[in-house]
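Today's session is about reading a structure prediction critically. Students often jump straight to the picture, but the first step is always the sequence itself: look for stretches that repeat, for charged clusters, for runs of hydrophobic residues. Only then move on to the predicted structure, which in these notes is written as discrete structure tokens rather than atom positions. Here is the chain we will use throughout the hour.
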Amino acid sequence: MPLSRKLALDDDQIEELMTSCWNCRIATIGPGSRINLTPMWFGWAGGRVYIYGRGQKVVNLRRNPTSTIIVDRNEKFPELQAIMMQGTATVLEDADAEAADPHLAEARAQIGRKYNGGHGQPQVDNPPPSAATARGSNGRWMVFQPESTVTWDNFKLAALRR
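Below is the predicted structure for this chain, in token form.
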């Protein structure tokens, strides 16, 4: 078995990482051939990554939906755990597109819980779902659909050395 499979996260670890980590990094193709890499808060629902944002990311994804997302945690190499997903993203352009998305409500609820108190406000019991919605020319939900996924759990390296 290749080393990468021996270090892979299992399904429970993937779910835990995707629902507990605060930041993902999304790479999009910017103007020309430059890569635009941005840390973002995100939700995970229906096997998709949901990001609300504005600006260059939205413009880039409208032009070219190809993107890569990484979610990782820990600083030291033997403790790194990560998921890297390559795929495409859709920009939900209006309230009708938001209403038609089968997992956006779940993602909004998860984001409300995950980031409760995250903007320096006190945490509240039963936080409301994210109310973010299409606004202006570029404030949009971006829905990332993975097409390939690679994971690693460097905690498993020690067991391989035995």
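Discussion point for the tutorial: The CA atoms of residues 83 and 115 lie 20 Å apart.
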